[in-house]
Hints:
By secondary structure, this protein is an alpha+beta fold. The protein is built from 11 helices and 7 strands. It has helices at residues 2-9, 15-35, 40-59, 63-83, 85-96, 100-107, 122-134, 150-153, 165-171, 211-222, 251-263; strands at residues 139-143, 157-162, 182-186, 189-195, 226-230, 237-241, 244-249. The protein has a 7-stranded mixed β-sheet with strand order 2-4-3-1-5-6-7, with helices on both faces. α3 runs antiparallel to α4 (63-83). The N and C termini lie far apart (66 Å).
Amino acid sequence: MILLNILKELPTFGIIDFVDILLVAILLFFLFKLLKGTNAISIVIGFFIFYIAWKVVSLLGMTILSEILGQFISLGVLALIILFQPEIRRFLILIGSKSITKSWGRFLFWKYANENEKKLNTNAIVQACSHMSASYTGALIIFCRENKLESIIQTGEIFQSDLSSQLLETIFFKNTPLHDGAVVIDKGKIQAARCILPVSHSHNIPLSMGLRHRSALGITENSDAIAVVVSEQTGKISIAQEGNITQGITPHFLQEFLDKEFNHPQIKTKQKKSK
């Protein structure tokens, strides 16, 4: 009888409640897809943990601590709006776009299974890096992964061209207007050149590293991208990933690394990382 009385007092679960939960689940899923591959997901998770802690403190009746955490939550919402201003702005632009279907597809990062997706031409990259290393030509090449770096691509000259060693060497040739900045590669194609990257402000970076290396570390700190750098001073080739950099790698190691990361992503390259 007691169980029946409890069940009677429970609110009824109707179709509207089901739709409400479904829409929230879809929204959270697409939010995760949007932020996946960036440091923004860590900020959201941290804010969510802080929110749960506030709720627990409130349920335990800790009035003063609950009030303090509540004020932080109020300010936290404003902070999230400021931090995610570019994403919110893009979201609103896409809603008002005439090609809303196509835009939403890009915004939500829909992925379709495609067994014939073009692989990364690692031979062209390694050949270009080898030639630029020998001639002491500085270069910075960024490879997209989950995060497509759309905001970074928009800062440069849009290419959307097939990848070749001759094109890469031409872009980074000292007398060309595109040599200063980064080349962004995604889906086996050059998406843009002369792109502006965030610079790492880590205090652990050796003074011998120039702006290219700091930019390579900066983009890999803020996304899941991989960066390849050719030093203009020493001619050494370096790989940056997850905010760490490996300097002085051989062309053979570079090709093996890129093949395993992009052409065979299930196999991960083992490498020694130095901050």
